[in-house]
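A reminder from the course coordinator: this example appears on the midterm review sheet, so study it carefully.

Given structure:
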């Protein structure tokens, strides 16, 4: 709000028909005109009602509106980036992409209201400040709203243990390097399940059924923000207490099995081993043909800054290396190329069928071959 002063004396008004903005301005004018200096009381406030841009600012601002239909169910890659980077920035960047001009409607209303008071110039002059005001006062939280609408997607913690199953080779009897019994014992030991526990049988069935693959514990994404502390000092331990799905999954061949277990076990925390199931090239959802929320009734682990009490060590997940490799194949494909070694036929162009022996499909660009 600007205050306008005018000078009481009629002669003064004749000399200056523009009103003064400040007392100082009026006094300065009078001095310049070599009039006797009036005391400040000699100046009369003639108007207080000249509005500024600040008078048109809304008290409540909500820039991002999230429809109940909007969710992150198909954004597992971005969600995985948040998990891997221990930061919500990848989602923030998506929000910037999805809503490129969220202040549009507020600006329209403000401009209209200011125009009615003849303050269009004031609007143009202060547009940057108006924008800053809107962003500073925004109370909406689109990431939170989108996460709330999102399905309880499955996340797993890879325990860095590879279950070794049966091997086959041409003209050889199938063989294994570790007996099934030893594999079951190894897995039970990692999970803290004793031989006399009722759960032993379930675990044994699952390990034998799966044959080979990586040992993981699955849980639902009920609270993504509990897994991300946005800090260079990451969590030190992860504790699974409650009911979880435990699986042995072969992500390369696309096989495995899962069972339900009651656990109370703590591990050192290795961020690279925390992975959205959907990011696997052959995920448990693909293998079993289940819904993406199949984990929704299980518990979530608790992450802590305290060092784990046990001295178990966790090797880095081989799935995380596989996910990186797949991302590289994907990027090459999107850039117009393809990679020899990428067995996903959808990431090659112009693939044709070759009838000569050995028959199969060939990519004319990189030479990748899929035998029949
Ligand atoms: Zn190719």
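Designed residues:
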């Amino acid at each position: 709000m600007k205050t306008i002063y005018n000078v009481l004396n009629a002669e003064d008004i004749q000399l200056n028909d523009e009103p003064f903005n400040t007392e100082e301005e009026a006094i300065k004018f009078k001095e310049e005109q070599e009039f006797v200096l009036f005391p400040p009381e000699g100046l009369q406030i003639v108007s207080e009602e000249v509005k500024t841009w600040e008078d048109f600012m809304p008290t409540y601002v909500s820039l991002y509106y999230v429809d109940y239909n909007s969710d992150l169910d198909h954004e597992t890659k971005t969600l995985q980036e948040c998990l891997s980077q221990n930061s919500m920035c990848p989602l923030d960047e998506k929000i910037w992409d999805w809503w490129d001009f969220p202040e549009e409607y507020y600006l329209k209303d403000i401009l209209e209201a200011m125009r009615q008071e003849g303050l269009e110039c004031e609007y143009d002059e202060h547009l940057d400040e108006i924008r800053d005001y809107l962003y500073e006062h925004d109370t909406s939280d689109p990431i939170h709203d989108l996460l709330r609408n999102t399905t309880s997607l499955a996340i797993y913690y890879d325990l860095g243990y590879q279950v070794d199953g049966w091997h086959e080779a041409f003209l050889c009897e199938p063989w294994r390097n570790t007996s099934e019994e030893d594999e079951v014992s190894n897995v039970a030991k990692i999970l803290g399940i004793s031989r006399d526990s009722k759960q032993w049988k379930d675990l044994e069935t699952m390990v034998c059924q799966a044959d080979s693959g990586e040992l993981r514990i699955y849980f639902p994404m009920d609270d993504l923000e509990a897994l991300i502390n946005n800090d260079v000092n990451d969590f030190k331990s992860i504790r699974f207490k409650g009911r979880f799905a435990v699986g042995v999954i072969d992500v390369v061949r696309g096989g495995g099995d899962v069972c339900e277990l009651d656990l109370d076990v703590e591990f050192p925390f290795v961020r690279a081993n925390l992975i959205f199931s959907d990011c696997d090239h052959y995920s448990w959802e693909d293998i079993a043909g289940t819904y993406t929320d199949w984990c929704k009734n299980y518990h979530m682990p608790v992450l802590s800054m305290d060092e784990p009490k046990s001295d178990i060590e966790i090797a880095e997940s081989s799935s995380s290396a596989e996910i990186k490799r797949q991302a590289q194949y994907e990027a090459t494909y999107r850039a117009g190329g393809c990679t020899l070694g990428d067995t996903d036929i959808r990431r090659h162009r112009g693939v044709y069928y070759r009838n000569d022996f050995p028959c199969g499909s060939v990519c004319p660009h990189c030479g990748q071959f899929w035998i029949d």
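The chain is about 30% helix and 20% strand. The first helix runs from residue 10 to 15.
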